[in-house]
Write a structure and sequence with these properties.
The protein is α+β, with helices and mostly antiparallel strands and 737 residues long. The protein has eleven helices and 45 strands. Helices cover 15% and strands 36% of the residues. β38 and β39 form a beta hairpin.
Length: 737
């Protein structure tokens, strides 16, 4: 396998990245790039046309024009949101007219453009508009399969004949896709796989019928309230039952795979055909997610045999794609056909490293070695015998491209230019000869170039980042630092000082927190130090803005750093943040009477915990969409990091902000959307009740029918920013004194 489409990223990171990019960066994603099979060109959507750019000269060619993308009888071309190719790249599936399902727009209409016949045709025309999901070609390119209303269908391209492959799909019996919890916490969306011979389809079936419904209420779209039911497994509740079946196109009969274990007490998080075979590779996680098993299953007979297992005292990390915006993404394996093995990530030696795990029972091979973490797997070049990955052994806030030999011999080689200190990103071509390279740091806006590999040389002097980086650099406003607490914990941080900073004056500090295993906030990129809610410029107004990464955040600092938070979310992370703040309060230019903290989701919970448990430090807090009671959140996330409440209820109580609400002394603004399907609005009402009980005065802002990211409703963003800014200025006034 010479091209790896889906690099690794810590699974917990995914759930926050989508929100963070949309809300804080107002990020809509870049135009999709698909490398051609030969790796010398890439496809790209531009101005309602599909074009190719051929390297090294960037020769551009229109392969589907506006006219060709205009359906018969229509005057406008399709507005294409996403595209995928048949294996021979002679046909392309065009995804349009999309609708959101939970986080991403995964429902829509599909059209096929045939390069050989120069024709455009809609598939699934008999279905309701915007109701198809995850359409993809069979390996031979003759059939397209897709999901609609939780059933799987196949459509013969030549005849247009549509065949139902499952017929029992309902709201709670889900074929070929997933329920809310699987999508949110495992990033599982596309739930079926074509067999290599194009004769069968393997698929997940989720039975959520035993999952209790959580009801949200819409009070604004009608004079009568509307109940919105959601199958949502709270922590402590058994997961949805899950199994894998293989359905033949010839008779639409399903053979169920006999994966050992209770289907409602285990998760099936990866499933894929082993190349050129009728065998499936399946990864199972137990309910606590601290025991992983790999099975090879016979897709024709249904029997499964375990070939590898791994345990961890905390949890076994599941690694996901760095491209969290891929609508059809679900965990894939990285196959190494030459050695009949997979490339596997594990923290078993205390660091996240890559291993070759044999599918034939041979000893595993450690590929990357040393006291550092692999951050992202970017590309496998089997021909040259190398794997490319992101790592940063010397600075946990940065990312660089490295390569190592697949056989585990030799040294880890830095590929990124050593002089470019910061964060590097790569999209590597299918043959490994080219890559799109991006670079930024806290004083350099993101810049892109196309390079050759492995020499990392720009294709032209004009686009070379090395040549133009000095012109791109700005005066650094953000400072990176480390701070050591009284507990001897060293934490990375960034700080933006007031524009007219006078070390003889004392300034207010605003802390931005997240602090949970889902995300780091201290990253050396151009967005470090930006506050996207604040109207104006915090530095110009006279604030010190700071963020810190505590133990438990997914920084590349080794297993012990990341997993020290097990069963201690709300305690270890909160103490680290507070102890670091105490050290910062010793700085001569910090005004200890004006200390504010804010965050969203896990950061909202951290804000509350800090306000309630360390009122002597934090005088003002702004908390958005917080989990105020850990028993209200979903089972996959909460049980992964906290265990089962049936076994250690005291940890959940001790870690929940609501336990300490009676200690509120400072100024608190709490914000929550009533339509939040992720962190339910009940968290707000529980907290409000507790604060009322103890006569604690605070400001509360519910946003009707807004979801976790507050993206709905006219004027929402402006209103929230105004509220946020005014509250901060009122209760934590800016400026030096």
């Amino acid at each position: 396998m010479n091209n790896l489409k889906k690099p690794f990223i810590n699974i917990s990171t995914f759930k926050f990245l989508v929100f963070f990019c949309v809300l804080f960066f107002n990020f809509n994603g870049e135009a999709q790039i698909n490398w051609t099979n030969d790796g010398d060109s890439y496809f790209k959507l531009e101005k309602n046309q599909l074009v190719t750019y051929t390297l090294p000269k960037h020769d551009v060619k229109t392969v589907i024009s506006k006219e060709q993308l205009t359906p018969a009888g229509k005057s406008e071309p399709l507005n294409v949101a996403h595209f995928t190719f048949s294996l021979d790249q002679q046909k392309v599936l065009l995804f349009t007219n999309t609708k959101k399902v939970w986080r991403l727009n995964t429902k829509g209409d599909y059209w096929v453009f045939n390069f050989k016949t120069n024709t455009l045709r809609q598939i699934g025309k008999s279905f309701a508009p915007s109701s198809l999901m995850f359409a993809k070609f069979s390996p031979d390119g003759n059939t397209i399969a897709y999901v609609s209303d939780n059933n799987i269908y196949s459509e013969d391209y030549a005849s247009g004949n549509i065949q139902p492959l499952t017929t029992n799909g309902t709201v709670s019996l889900i074929n070929g896709t997933f329920d809310w919890a699987y999508e949110e916490e495992f990033a599982c969306r596309d739930g079926f796989r074509w067999s290599p011979d194009s004769k069968s389809i393997a698929y997940w079936q989720i039975d959520a019928s035993a999952i209790k419904k959580f009801y949200m209420i819409n009070n604004t779209d009608s004079i009568y309230s509307q109940l919105i039911p959601l199958e949502y497994p709270k922590v402590g509740e058994s997961p949805s039952a899950c199994k894998v079946g293989v359905v033949k196109l010839s008779d639409a009969k399903t053979t169920w795979i006999d994966v050992p274990g209770d289907a409602s007490q285990n998760y099936l998080v990866r499933m894929e055909y082993i190349p050129s075979s009728n065998k499936l590779l399946i990864q199972q996680l137990n309910r606590k997610q601290n025991h992983s098993k790999l099975y090879i299953a016979d897709a024709l007979k249904g029997n499964a045999n375990m070939i590898q297992e791994e345990s961890d005292e905390a949890w076994v990390d599941l690694f996901q794609s760095g491209n969290q915006y891929e609508i059809d993404y679900t965990n894939n394996f990285s196959f190494l056909n030459e050695t009949n093995s997979i490339l596997w990530a594990s923290e078993k030696d205390g660091w996240r490293h890559l291993y070759q795990v044999s599918l034939e029972g041979k000893p595993e091979v450690l590929v990357t070695k040393g006291e550092f973490d692999v951050i992202d797997l970017k590309h496998i070049n089997s021909k040259e015998g190398y794997v490319y990955y992101l790592a940063s052994p010397d600075n946990a806030t940065q990312k660089y491209l490295y390569k190592s030999k697949l056989n585990g011999k030799g040294k880890n080689i830095l590929v990124s230019p050593e002089s470019l200190k910061g964060t590097h990103g790569y999209s590597i071509s299918s043959n490994g000869s080219y890559a799109q390279h991006s670079f930024s740091n806290h004083y350099t806006p993101s810049s892109k170039e196309y390079i050759t590999l492995p020499n990392h040389k720009a294709l032209s002097e004009e686009e070379s980042i090395l040549n133009k980086v000095k012109k791109l650099e700005e005066k650094a406003k953000t400072e990176f630092f480390t701070i050591k607490t009284a507990d001897n914990i060293e934490m990375d941080g960034w700080m933006v000082k007031p524009t007219d900073f006078d070390p003889k004056k004392k300034y207010p500090v605003v802390f931005f927190v997240y602090s949970e295993p889902a995300m780091t906030t201290v990253n050396d990129n151009y967005y470090a130090g930006k506050n996207w809610f604040y109207i104006g410029d915090m530095a110009d107004d006279g604030y010190i803005y700071i963020s810190l990464d505590n133990r438990g955040t997914p920084a590349p600092k080794g297993r012990e750093w990341r997993k020290s938070i097990y069963r201690k979310i709300g305690t270890v992370n909160i103490k680290d943040q507070a102890m670091a703040a105490k050290e910062i309060l010793k700085w001569d230019f910090v005004d200890a009477e004006r200390i504010a903290v804010w965050g969203h989701s896990g950061g909202g919970a951290a804000t509350l915990n800090l306000m309630f448990r360390y009122p002597e430090i934090y005088t003002t807090g702004i908390s958005l969409s917080a989990v105020t009671n850990q028993l209200t959140y979903d089972n996959i996330y909460q049980e992964r990091y906290m265990g089962l409440p049936q076994e250690n209820m005291e940890d959940f109580i001790e870690a929940s902000p609501i336990t300490y609400a009676k200690n509120l002394e400072g100024n608190l603004l709490y914000i929550h959307g009533t339509g939040d399907d992720n962190v339910h609005y009940q968290n707000a009402e529980m907290l409000v009740n507790e604060l009322i009980k103890y006569n604690k005065q605070f400001q509360f802002m519910p946003y009707p029918n807004r979801s976790h990211g507050f993206r709905e409703g006219e004027g929402t963003r402006k209103h929230m920013s105004t509220l946020y800014t005014n509250y901060l200025k009122l209760h934590c006034p800016p400026g030096g004194r």
